[in-house]
Specification:
Largest interface: A-B, 87 and 87 residues
Strand order of the largest sheet of chain A: 2-9-8-7-6-3-4-5
Number of helices of chain A: 14
Helix content of chain A: 40-55%
Oligomer: homodimer
CATH class of the largest domain in chain A: Alpha Beta
Number of strands of chain A: 14
Structural class of chain A: alpha/beta
CATH superfamily of the largest domain in chain A: Type I PLP-dependent aspartate aminotransferase-like (Major domain)
Order of helices and strands of chain A: HEHHHEHEHEEHEHEHEEHHHEEHEEEH
Radius of gyration of chain A: 21 Å
Shape of chain A: globular
Largest sheet of chain A: 8 strands, mixed
CATH architecture of the largest domain in chain A: 3-Layer(aba) Sandwich
Number of domains of chain A: 2
Strand content of chain A: 15-25%
């Protein structure tokens, strides 16, 4: 075979650590707290089947033909209304439909970054964002978080210590973060936007989980806050997704960005995939238009609340081993093993006992905290949560 | 608003020339020979509706949940069988499902190219490939074509004149090219592969149209030929798509690449869109598994043969104005206006008379031939083809 030459980022790339864990999923009896998969039992199958049938019956050509790169008007209109219900005023022309919110970040990287540019990312943060930035040759700096998310005081000091203009953008998941589950309080949101204005920063607000709040009071998104602020206006690009609230199988996300950025991302998307599956778009538009999401959401939230509560109850039994921060939404609980126990060593014991989680090291750009771990309560059922945590307790005892 | 900073490729990007023509489509009575859209009347609506219903009924979770990045096994199996029917031996593990074949090129660019790397592209060639390469900072060199496609004699001289290792890859559409409709003869295919071996070249064979042959005898793809050759083995990456043979709305393509490239593209895809819409994949798998494509294909080919023939007949009436090369498949007829008439000037007259085509300039990396143009016979019906060509004749008369 020829001796292929690869780009520098792909000389010896490593895939997602989380995806590497997938091979253990097929072991008989395995219970997984690892992936960020939504619960299959909560999929709104009947309404989705109806939306699918109706979409094809009513507009078969919109399903089957190419669509405009920015997305089908019918879906962009529904997403603009959805953003309105969530508190931000967004016209359908501001919505760019993407192939999952993951594609939004890929487009932004193409449009905004040169190799060597500096980007700030929460520590710990979303691994696929870290990976995408690294592969684009960006210099990734960590922004410290605590159990409330980004520590904006320390961020202020960090930015002040850097030469002006060093940081091109800041990527964050401010609402029910992956992996920590943290939700950034209002005062910090405002402080973050003030920092963006002061340091001429663009903020990428990745928000796949924001609608999954099951306790506490809703907070405005960074996008919404920026719309109300003279200084911060135009400083937030908002990414979101239907994957966690409807179904990942649609592979539908969207971006709301200032015009100059939106137009360029649309041009970039022409060369990336021309458009996102129009068929999937038409199904989603039909589902949203019929109001099915609003009908399904309370049940979804109740279901995730129960699962989260069940996992917190089980983890309380393990408190001699692990310290956790209860989330108010999303899919994840972040834990720290006590006495510096290695999450990787724990994982080996856990796999033997047929329970999976993600060691926290996957979520750090550098200097990983090896005693950290991420547990997802979203996919397993209540009984599996109980059993999985019992097994995790046994794994701890073996260390 | 803030003064945004963009990457160098996106300082002042221009979108697709073809997509810019879309705005004229809404003019009343417009007949379009412009886009590369498949004919809506040939969509296999009944079988697709049945496949969609069955996919969801049989495997709702495969439709709704995340899939592995490389694609659903059910679809990869069908695509491996499809490649077999087309003559190439491809295991399902070699198939990477992509969000249209356009994504295949985007992944390859990420994995194989650094800014400044040299890539050869047919002249004239597919604009979205030229654009993707340009935006990645590649140095695009033109490879001369004639009515049989790549002129491999001249390519041999071109490669011999360059320092060894200069060209990282060669991108081509050897079968029913966009825009020329040319089909590379067997002897040239073999010569091209010999050149690839001699100059350590990787060839990207983009093949969305190959299955749309409506006259003449099938030729082996470059991939198939490379499999039979000791020297050329592993030197072809094959991209294809269901857009032209089933429906663009699925947004499904695939890549067949040597393992080292396939694995890296899979890792790149994790950061690009995680996976291609599983729902669309499941529908396509169901459609293919039931044998519907093989049932539909003869009718599709007969339909495109009729349209092409009708356009050729009409163009024969315009032979004092335009010189064309009849294609044996695909969707396009390439023409040259006689006496150096400007295709752009012709377009202005044509739009007034409500007929659209694409001036050839869009298909050149540099030094466009301004008297060239591309006509697609795929989307309009037979009556529209007649009327559109009459209008084109009137437009010629006004110049």
């Amino acid at each position: 075979m020829p001796d292929y030459r690869f780009s520098s980022a792909f000389q010896a790339p490593t895939g997602s650590v989380i995806r590497e864990l997938f091979k253990y999923l097929s072991l008989p009896g395995m219970i997984s707290f690892a992936g960020g998969y939504p619960a299959a039992q909560f999929f709104d199958r009947t309404a989705l089947a109806a939306a699918s049938a109706q979409a094809f019956a009513e507009a078969p050509l919109d399903c089957l033909q190419y669509a405009a790169t920015e997305g089908l008007p019918a879906l962009r209109e529904q997403l603009s209304l959805l953003m309105g219900r969530r508190g931000a005023q967004v016209s359908m022309d501001q919505v760019l439909v993407t192939t999952g919110s993951q594609q939004g970040l890929d487009l932004l990287i193409k449009v905004l970054l040169e190799p060597g540019d500096t980007v700030l990312v929460e520590r710990p943060g979303y691994p696929a964002a870290l990976q995408a930035l690294r592969m684009a040759g960006a210099r990734v700096l960590s922004a410290v978080t605590d159990r409330d998310g980004l520590d904006t005081e320390r961020l202020a000091a960090q930015l002040a210590a850097l030469a002006p203009g060093t940081v091109r953008l800041l990527y964050c998941v401010p609402t029910f973060a992956n992996p920590t589950g943290a939700c950034l309080p209002l005062a910090r949101r405002e402080q973050l936007l003030a920092l963006a204005a002061r340091h001429d920063l663009l903020i990428v607000e990745d928000d796949p989980y924001g609608a999954l709040r099951f306790s506490g009071q809703a907070l405005p998104s960074l996008l919404e806050l920026s719309q109300r602020s003279d200084d911060a206006q135009g400083r937030v690009v908002h990414l979101s997704s239907l994957s966690k609230v409807i179904a990942p199988g649609l592979r539908l996300g969207w971006m709301v960005a200032p015009d100059a950025i939106n137009q360029r991302c649309r041009i970039a998307k022409q060369t990336v995939d021309l458009c996102t599956s129009p068929w999937a778009q038409q199904i989603a538009a039909e589902y949203l238009r019929g109001g099915a999401l609003e009908v399904a959401l309370p049940g979804l939230l109740a279901g995730y609340r129960d699962k989260c509560q069940r996992m917190l109850t089980g983890l309380a039994e393990l408190e001699e081993y692990i310290e956790i921060s209860p989330p108010a939404g999303g899919m994840f609980i972040w834990g720290k093993c006590r006495q510096g126990v290695s999450a990787q060593a724990l994982l080996e014991q856990a796999i033997e006992r047929r329970v999976l989680f993600v060691p926290g090291a996957a979520f750090y750009a550098e200097a990983p905290e090896l005693d950290s771990l991420r547990l997802s309560f979203a996919a397993p059922d209540l009984q599996q949560i109980d059993t999985g945590l019992e097994r995790l307790g046994e794994a701890f005892k073996r260390l």
